[in-house]
Design brief:
about 35% helix, alpha/beta, about 220 residues
Length: about 220
């Protein structure tokens, strides 16, 4: 299976169809949920989408070791390409375009993450997508989120962040001072043994209605 065919089969296409095309380059998005509902799985699907588009991705994790993150990417790729053979060239390009970084938020804040991203850029890595998993808003200052948003805008990079949040209303997703920096906000919740994916905000729109959910077996985004 060729990389372009994989990109067209990406579960993110279902999300984009509902979310007015989804997050745009240069914008900051947020994925929230209680623990164990699939935030990392969704974040990895957004990251994989960048890779399947032939572009370079940086995955920053604050709560998982790099080896665990790689397992997530391998699993998601296998599910997207199930029953098809992925070309060795496509696999190699995905691995070469993926940079995984593991930090502890107690001693490495988001501003330092941005400094690392800028260093990668200076080193010739043309990053088009960034995903940051496990951000604790209790440890993040407005300056941290502002730094990430400014980086995204200046470099035209699409950035998704995940955080643990129990509430399901837009105003509950992040501290009041931080929330406006996010162009897109997606919340996962459990309903009738199903993980539902609710788009609380995308651009100026806040009234999305969809049937998006996570497949209980594969954790892929689906509208079925």
């Amino acid at each position: 299976m060729a990389k372009q065919e994989l990109f067209e089969k990406s579960p993110v296409r279902a999300f984009d169809a509902v979310a007015n095309g989804g997050l745009k380059s240069g914008e900051l998005g947020l994925i929230t949920a209680k623990k164990g509902l699939g935030k990392t799985a969704v974040l990895v699907q957004f990251g994989m989408d960048t890779l399947l588009n032939g572009k370079q991705l940086v995955h920053v994790s604050f709560d998982q070791h790099s080896s665990n993150v790689i397992v997530w990417y391998d699993g998601i790729l296998n599910e997207i390409s199930k029953k098809k053979t992925i070309s060795a060239e496509a696999k190699d390009l995905i691995v070469r375009n993926r940079t995984i970084l593991n930090f502890n938020q107690d001693n490495f804040n988001l501003e330092k993450v941005v400094n690392t991203l800028n260093a990668l850029k200076a080193g010739g890595i043309a990053v088009s997508g960034v995903v940051i998993d496990g951000v604790d808003f209790a440890k993040a200052k407005e300056a941290d989120i502002q730094a990430v948003a400014s980086y995204a805008k200046a470099t035209k990079t699409k950035v998704w962040i995940s955080s643990t949040v129990a509430g399901d209303k837009l105003e509950e997703q992040a501290p009041k001072a931080i929330l406006p920096y996010f162009a897109g906000v997606v919340h996962l919740s459990s309903k009738a043994s199903t993980t539902v994916m609710t788009i609380l905000k995308m651009g100026k729109a806040t009234d999305f209605e969809s049937t998006l959910k996570l497949d209980p077996k594969t954790l892929l985004i689906t509208a079925k």
